[in-house]
Amino acid sequence: MKIGLIGLGIMGKPMAKNLMKGGYTDLLVSDLNRDSVAEIVAAGAKAATNREIGESCDLVLTMLPNSPQVEAVMLGEEGVGAYMKPGSTFIDMSSINPVNAKKIAAELAKRGVEMLDSPVSGGEPKAIDGTLSFMVGGKQEVFDKFKPVLATMGASVVRCGDVGAGNTTKLANQIIVACNIQALAEALTLARKAGVDPQLVFEAIRGGLAGSTVMNAKAPMMIAANDKPGFMVDLHIKDLNNALDCAHTVGVPLPMTAEVMEVLQWLHNREGGRKDHSAMIQYYEHLTGIELGR
Ligand code: NAD
Asked: Helices (H) and strands (E) in the chain — how many of each?
């Protein structure tokens, strides 16, 4: 199977390497960043233009920042979609607005091209060791055919429904993670201000009902005053914007998401856009005048 992958950033580069490790060695790649392309070509892929990818590949993958980039690459002037063969397939692995994912799928369907939307969770470490979680939307038979390809990059590949369902699931994931981080920051600030060591609070409650993957990953970072990403504030703002936009389109209010968005926006405005999202603790430190870090 000839595969094209467009978007070789933090996530796309290790995913390209895992595709080849998994046996999909006939791989064409493209990115605006020439250094990233050179790195993946050195690992065994071939550099190609978007047109060459569209014309020659059975499967086109994208791992781009957001909806506008995916739309431009697939449907824009000289977009890949215009060159794809009927019967070929497009899988977008970026985290985008599900409304846009459905729009792209509808346009490609006019050309006889199938689409899955298949965002991931797990971040760079899991992209490197090939243990990402894929949340997939699209037809069952298309999912069944391409699940083995995604499985070279992930430990979990779950179909959540029709096209758009993958990104809707990812938005649910991002809402839960953001609200958990804010709750954790608020609770640890209270503990410190009331005179209880946040590290001991973490140790005492992590095994109970409040314990979570988010708590295990982010409490140590908050306590150590470590805001190195991880997952950047600006990427989370992008995801929550998509969540709010999608929610308003389908008529759902998201009051908690709207509030945590303002905290992230505060960080962004203070040049914290590239910090880890656990830097939400800095908002509470600013409000209370305490420092959580030991
Ligand atoms: P990134 O910014 O590191 O990579 C994006 C890549 O796309 C860059 O190399 C950029 O040059 C390229 N690009 C942009 N526009 C392009 C175009 N028109 N043509 C060709 N290439 C283009 O981002 P990332 O961290 O790899 O994230 C990619 C997607 O995965 C995002 O939607 C993100 O939300 C999602 N995601 C990221 C993480 C994470 O921890 N980084 C985790 C889960 C999901």
From this structure: 13, 9
